[in-house]
Amino acid sequence: MSSSSSRHRISSRAPQTQTQTQTQTQSVAPEIPHDVAASSSSGGAAATSPQENPFALTSLEEVAVESCSLPVVGPLSYSADVLSGVRVLKLLYVHRICDSLVRESYRRSRVPLLPYKVVGDILRSIHDVLTQCATDGSDRHLSELSTQIFENSSQPLDPHQSMTVEEYISLFTGSQLRWEAIGNVFAVAGRAIIASPDNDPIFVENGAPGRANLLSQIAEASDLCLSFCARESCSNELLVSLQVNDLMLKTQQHGDSSYQSWRRLGDLCATVYFSGIHRQDGDERDPVFLAQLKRGCFASAFYVDKCVATFLGRPPLLNYRHCSLVPPLDLSDDILVGDPACLTEAIEQVSSTGWNCHGRIYRTSLARIRLLLAIFKDKVIELRAGHYDADTLPRANQILEEAQSSWEHCPDPLRYDRFNNADNDDHSNVNRFTIISIYLDYLHSRFLLLQFMAAHMDDSRAAFLETAQKILATVIQATKYRASQIDLSQDYSWITLYYGIPSATLLAQDLHSTRHTQQGPSPPHVAATETIRNLCVLVSMLSWVVSPIHGDYHICKDAERRLSQMVDEILDRVNSPSVDTLASNELFDHMLEWVDYGNLGFGPVLFG
Questions:
Q1: What is the mean pLDDT of residues 565-591?
Q2: Which of 27-31, 202-206, 285-289 has the lowest mean pLDDT?
Q3: C-alpha 377: how far from its chain's center?
Q4: CA–CA gap between residue 168 and residue 163 (Å, rounded)
Q5: CA pair distance 394, 49, nearest whole angstrom
Q6: In sequence order, what DSSP letters do the residues of 217-262 get, joined into one string?
């Protein structure tokens, strides 16, 4: 373009549609087309060599933008944002590995937020527009493209009831490309880097820089996209998806207890409320597929909120009383983004409780069960935080019955307590791990509720300790399911800290107090030998469950040290009954300071 005020327009050519021919099997992995799986296994898109890269970019810090090429676009801060946008676009152009990482993430991931068709069309659109801008290597085209993306992102998405899937996707691709869409690519790619082992061929085949360096660049780009979206103050389901993915990335980078993670959670919940996604109970403006997509995004946000809040012992930011709590229907992505007539027919075929009748596990199956369990947990948290009165225990029993009913209606393929390896040989270890995580989440909510009830009525103590033993045993069983093609260390550290430590600590406390008082022997439901053995195994797990580069490493090491002291004290008193009981109790009470029993999360000794 010859004039500095002229605008380089993105091609408005609609993204090519992709035939999804996946054979449906009973699997937790998301439904993605065969050609995606093939391209992922072969490394995906080829990396751009330095000779092929007209922008000569090796890192965000080294991006040089021609100052003379920037158009005059309003305030200085806006021009600075456009410059940052150019840097992000250059990074995306150079690191074609992002395409491969996103595809690999969908091939390996257990609970992606968006159907692959949506993300796949975003990837193709980004490739097309950046290829257009790279014709002469000039920054002018990129600055004009960055300006236009800002303008697109400042406008609300405007769906209508008769809109097709292709028309919906065109609202944020092609000539309408938005920062929310680009940010999702970076956030998903960043999560894929963390989940990939160091020797993954994807890094070599795509000519990527060092793994840590690549993760740093992509995480920074995700941050920039979020800041661009915040500047434009336009919220929608794409932004919710980006914020959930970025929050998960931050917890994996900096740890679940980090300020970065908590701040991201606050931003996510603010977007959910502001956008109205928490009230998805029949918006007539949305086509059916979009209503289901929004429900899935809300389910993910609501679930993550409960996990982080419970882990840190803080109040949840999304309250079930202010949300419609309609879970997404249990439909495959092929149906959800396919022919509208087939979608209508599939909706009529789901069970009265909303589950598919084919015995299959879809992306939405996992989002659905997670939301139902998160609602249960939210009610438990509210009950525990409230004032105790005559109605409290009846309410607790009602919540417990509702949770058990929901769990009983959950399809067998999603229930680890009905899981039979002989009948599920097609499940990968990653999928088995997902089923265990669902079961642990159910047990954890029961554990929180029964612990509260046991404090007020003795006849709940047996069920409480039995649930704690089940959690501890299941956490240990989860270590059997290793996967050579995916790094599950973050998942192991999460279930160990979130589920294993609270149950193990209270079991240790029960063993310590019961065996060394005059209240008689341990009740028959407390298998002391097995519990001590499992406690020792958990201590061992904490020594290897997470590598030093992961955000939760220091928490795991501190948990290992403190839990090891507790187990040693129990064993010492078993072997030496004459030990000073008062001194031992004082020492044990000091060890317990690191757990906040009010919330059954970690206390200030650990988090400060």
A1: 63
A2: 27-31
A3: 17
A4: 6
A5: 67
A6: HHHHHHHHHHHHHHHHT---HHHHHHHHHHHHHHHHHH-TTSHHHH
pLDDT average, residue stretch 69-79: 48
Gap between the Cα atoms of 194 and 488, Å rounded:
9
Q: Which of 266, 267, 264, 268 is nearest to 255 (CA)?
A: 264
Q: Which two tokens mark 1?
A: 């373009």
User: Predicted confidence band at 269 (pLDDT cuts at 50, 70, 90)?
Assistant: very high
Nearest residue to 303 (alpha-carbon basis) of 332, 333, 323, 289: 323
Burial 73-111 (b: 16+ CB within 10 A, else e): beeeeebebbbbbbbbbbbbbbbbbbbbbbbbbbbbbbb
Measure the CA–CA gap between 351 and 302, rounded to whole angstroms.
24
Q: What is the three-class DSSP state of 601?
A: strand
- What's this model's pTM, rounded to 2 decimal places? 0.84
Which pLDDT score, from 0 to 100, does residue 311 have?
87
- What tokens appear for 555 in the block? 């928490």
Q: What HEC string does 137-148 produce?
A: CCHHHHHHHHHH
- Token pair 């033993």 is at which residue? 469
User: How is residue 244 written in tokens?
Assistant: 């959930």
Give me 594's structure tokens. 């690191």
Contact by Cβ (8 Å): 298, 375: no
Which amino acid is residue 385, in one-letter code?
Answer: A
Q: What share of the chain is helix, strand, coil (3-state, %, to 5)?
A: 65, 0, 35
* CA–CA dist 316, 269 (Å, integer): 10
Question: Confidence class of residue 7 from pLDDT cuts 50, 70 and 90?
Answer: very low
Task: Quickly state the pLDDT bin for 464 (edges 50, 70, 90).
Answer: very high
Contact between residue 206 and residue 44 where contact means Cβ atoms under 8 Å apart: yes
Strand-pair partners of 595: 602
Q: Are 96 and 206 in contact (CB under 8 A)?
A: yes
The tokens for 499 are: 């589920």
Higher confidence at residue 114 or residue 460?
114
Query: What is the pLDDT confidence band of residue 410, given thresholds at 50, 70 and 90?
Result: very high
Q: Taken in order 361, 363, 368, 374, is the CA torsion positive or negative?
A: positive
The answer on pLDDT for 50 being more than 50 is no
Range list of H helices, 350-500: 363-385, 392-408, 429-454, 461-478, 489-495
Per-residue exposure over 482-508, b if at least 16 CB sit within 10 Å of its own CB, e if not: ebebbbbbbbbbbbbbbbbbbbbbbbb
Q: Does the pLDDT at position 72 exceed 90?
A: no
Over 80: is that where the pLDDT of 532 sits? yes
Q: Looking at this protein, which amino acid is placed at residue 147?
A: T
Cα torsion angle, 592, 596, 602, 603, sign = negative
Task: Please tell me the predicted confidence (pLDDT) of residue 339.
Answer: 93
Structure tokens that stand for 177 in this block: 């490309």
